[in-house]
């Protein structure tokens, strides 16, 4: 091992040791014997969330729980970059610039901070790699059939029904048909968490794993964590739970789906405490929706 690599390893281990006291609740959550542990992000990654995932406290908790793989909701075309980080063939800066140049963008991050978010993502992967923990990108690429495919193969009944009405009749029956079809595509995307669950199970190969994903994937009846028999928390920072509750209500209204299914707890990234009792709980529980218009309510 080269001298600078040895120095980095010593420093990282020292930082992880000092961070471990701050990760007790997160460590207890990950120590549960379930194979999969899901951490939902209400904004698909604000900068503080990426900073948390790159923190020594997060890596310490993951390492202590004997996690072998961390799955992250990022286009799978970027997996070769994570592989290079894991192999020690790419540094964090090179990763970030290649990632950014490849067109990756972070939904909850401002334009000026996009490169910083990419660097933090690379830093997380590098720290995990030091402990032989793989970072694996996943998305729905290749899983979702073409919209011109057979409607009967769809997983969401509303989306399947609307596709059946696509030949002009739908527009005649409902002037908002195109708008409703766009909303129903999101229903189908959530329903196809069943396909994502199968893909992650295959890639995990029995290893204990963490899944980092948008929190809406945990909030409806299609919930990824339920399908994987996983433990789940939704992470939040200052003021984010209020915005999350509003987002759930908007999603329930737009998609005609209940978006009030609760995770096992809520993770405060400022102090790494986990609670199931938050002031916004009643507001989140009331995020219910009913499909209006052509195709009626799902069975």
Tell me what you see in this structure.
This protein has 299 residues and is of the alpha/beta class. 47% of the residues lie in helices and 12% in strands. It contains 14 helices and seven strands. It has helices at 3-19, 24-31, 47-53, 56-64, 79-87, 92-101, 114-130, 157-164, 169-173, 177-191, 193-204, 224-227, 240-255, 281-285, and strands at residues 36-41, 69-73, 134-138, 209-214, 231-236, 265-268, 273-275. It has a seven-stranded mixed β-sheet with strand order 3-2-4-1-5-6-7, with helices on both faces. Strand 5, helix 13 and strand 6 (265-268) form a beta-alpha-beta unit. Helix 6 crosses helix 7 (114-130) and helix 8 runs antiparallel to helix 10 (177-191). The longest helix has 17 residues, at 3-19. The chain is globular and about 60 Å long.
């Amino acid at each position: 091992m080269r001298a600078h690599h040895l120095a980095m390893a010593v420093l990282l281990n020292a930082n992880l040791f000092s961070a471990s006291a701050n990760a007790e609740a997160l460590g207890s959550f990950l120590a549960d014997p379930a194979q999969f542990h899901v951490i939902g992000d209400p904004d698909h990654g604000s900068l503080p969330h990426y900073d948390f995932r790159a923190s020594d406290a997060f890596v310490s908790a993951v390492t202590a729980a004997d996690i072998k793989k961390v799955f992250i909701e990022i286009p799978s075309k970027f997996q070769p970059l994570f592989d290079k980080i894991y192999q020690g063939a790419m540094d964090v800066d090179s990763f970030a610039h290649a990632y950014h140049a490849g067109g990756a963008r972070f939904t909850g991050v401002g334009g000026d901070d996009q490169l910083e978010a990419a660097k933090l993502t690379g830093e997380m992967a590098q720290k995990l790699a030091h402990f032989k923990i793989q970072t694996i990108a996943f998305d729905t690429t290749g899983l979702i059939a073409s919209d011109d495919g057979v409607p009967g193969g769809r997983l969401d009944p509303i989306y399947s029904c609307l596709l059946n009405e696509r030949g002009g009749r739908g527009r005649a029956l409902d002037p908002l048909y195109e708008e409703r079809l766009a909303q129903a595509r999101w229903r189908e995307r959530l329903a196809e968490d069943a396909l994502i669950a199968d893909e992650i199970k295959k890639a995990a190969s029995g290893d204990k794993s963490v899944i980092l994903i948008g929190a809406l994937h945990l909030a409806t009846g299609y919930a990824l964590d339920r399908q994987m028999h996983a433990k789940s928390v939704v992470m939040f920072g200052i003021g984010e739970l209020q915005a999350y509750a509003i987002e759930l209500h908007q999603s329930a209204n737009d998609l005609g789906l209940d978006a009030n299914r609760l995770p096992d707890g809520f993770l405060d990234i400022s102090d790494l405490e986990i609670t199931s009792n938050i002031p916004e709980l009643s507001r989140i529980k009331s995020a219910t929706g009913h499909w209006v218009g052509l195709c009626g309510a799902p069975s």
